[in-house]
Design brief:
heterodimer; A: alpha/beta; 11 helices; about 15% strand; B: about 90 residues; alpha+beta; 5-stranded antiparallel β-sheet; about 30% strand
Chain lengths: ~375, ~90
């Protein structure tokens, strides 16, 4: 198999990730619940995973990192904690349902920022969307469909000038490109994509050590005789037993990234993406979506004229054992923008573990089918 | 003489343990005695001669809400007396 679905989840990981999970499942007690060796080993692993994420994003205090089961759970918790029906909120046409659906559920007044024909956000339109009660903007740092990187610094600068809290979805960017704590107020990340961790890991990062209104409570190993759980980070989002087995694996993925260096990962992924895009650009029946004139994620989404995306993905799999993702990618607004709701797109997404030979086989297969 | 350092959350306690272990202090994790009502179920035991250094490290890393207790014998019973060195209470407890 040639695996080109890394934007959905990583498949090839540093071997120490799986080794760590296997070790943890046989040795770890319950993190933060007791004092003996097995419990403390678990607790230390969870703490070290916080410290690794904090180091990656440039935060001094690891306790500003709370773990959840996914970026989706993180976004749900933060949005439910902070956003009320009377708020006006800005999101974008490039956002995933993990942002949009929790926002719809709040009943807030949601304003959607549009994009141009290359999928670039129309940031000048932000001034037109803002209302007196606009308190939040929730958007992605990088699109899971176009692979475009949004200018988080420009967005955050605008938000601060308007007293708006920015919640940044970094599911597609953390571990692939630089993400720093000065890009937003709150970040939601996943562990199983760019960070090479196991599925079932993710979290919330608060750029400042701040309390949050409670939306999830239960056993926390703390304040057992109080009716309510603490509202400080990270406890506020961590009721229940932590996934310490998975988080020990995540720690190994993060250590791999901190050791390898983001610049090296980004450079390799960019080279593979450019090679692929160059190899198919002359195919007249192929339409590629996104802006390839600037730094971007290792994602190439495309359509083949006259063919449903599911048929193309199926042929790639059955004829060449190439794994891609067809359909709407849980990002309905960007597909409506490009009028691909029905046809869908086939997304090729690469990782630093892909090889030039695999890219060339992908090009060859696509040229044969589209020729 | 031994002292206990108690915290308002387990994640703080584990962070503190990491910091003090990195500084090579002879600390031990133990369950919080029932007579201390701080919140977190685990605490750190520290030797008297290392208490000052331990608190200096924790305070320098902004770990708030710490309470310190001195382990004492009252007859045959162990009691924990509050020690005056206590950092500002964390205000974010819900």
């Amino acid at each position: 198999m040639i695996y080109f679905d890394n934007a959905a989840t990583s498949l090839t990981r540093p071997p120490e990730v799986g080794q760590a999970v296997r070790y943890a499942i046989d040795h770890f007690g319950n993190s933060g619940r007791s004092f003996y060796d097995a419990a403390m080993e678990s607790g230390r692993a969870v703490f070290d995973a916080r410290a690794g994420i904090a180091q990656l994003i440039g935060l001094d205090n690891p306790l500003q990192v709370a773990f959840t089961s996914s970026a989706t759970e993180g976004l749900n918790l933060v949005i439910r904690s902070l956003i009320k029906s009377q708020d006006s909120v800005i999101s974008t046409v490039t956002d995933h349902n993990s942002v949009l659906r929790p926002l719809y559920l709040t009943g807030c007044d949601l304003r959607i920022l549009g994009c141009d024909d290359k999928g670039n956000l129309l940031l000048d339109d932000l001034d037109r969307l803002v209302r007196p009660n606009t308190r939040f903007m929730v958007c992605n740092h990088g699109s899971n469909v176009t692979g475009n990187i949004n200018d988080a610094r420009a967005i955050y600068s605008w938000c601060r000038a308007h007293g708006i809290t920015l919640i940044l979805d970094i599911a597609q960017t953390l571990g692939s490109i630089p993400v720093t704590a000065d890009m937003a107020d709150i970040f939601c990340f996943t562990g199983h994509k760019g960070l090479f961790g196991p599925q079932g890991t993710g979290g919330i990062i608060a750029a400042e050590d701040r309390p949050f209104p409670l939306v999830k409570t239960g056993g926390a190993g703390t304040d057992s005789f109080e009716r309510h759980q603490a509202t400080r980070m990270p406890d506020v989002f961590e009721a229940g037993t932590q996934n310490s087995h998975g988080l020990f694996g995540l720690l190994k993925g993060v250590e791999f990234i901190n050791r390898t260096g983001l610049a090296s990962i980004q450079e390799r992924e960019s080279r593979l993406t450019e090679r692929f895009q160059e190899g198919i650009r002359d195919l007249e029946k192929i339409t590629v979506y996104g802006d390839f004139s600037k730094a971007r994620l290792a994602v190439v989404s495309l359509t083949l004229e006259g063919m449903d995306s599911s048929d193309l993905a199926l042929r790639l799999w059955e004829e060449d054992q190439i794994a891609t993702r067809a359909g709407a990618h849980c990002a309905p607004l960007i597909h409506q923008h490009f009028k691909t709701e029905e046809q869908g797109m086939v997304r090729f997404s690469f990782s630093r573990f892909n090889t030039e030979e695999e890219i060339d086989q992908g090009i060859k297969a696509l040229r044969r089918i589209a020729g | 003489m031994e002292y206990l350092i108690a915290f308002t959350s387990t994640s703080q306690a584990i962070r503190a343990e990491r910091l003090l272990m990195d500084a090579k202090l002879k600390i031990r994790v133990m369950p919080l005695p029932g007579q201390i009502n701080v919140g977190c179920g685990i605490c750190l035991r520290v030797e008297a001669e290392e208490l000052e250094e331990a608190l200096r490290i924790l305070q320098s890393r902004l770990i708030g809400g710490i309470e310190v207790y001195q382990k004492t014998l009252e007859g045959k019973r162990i009691i924990y007396l509050p020690h005056p060195i206590t950092t500002q209470e964390d205000e974010s407890t819900g």
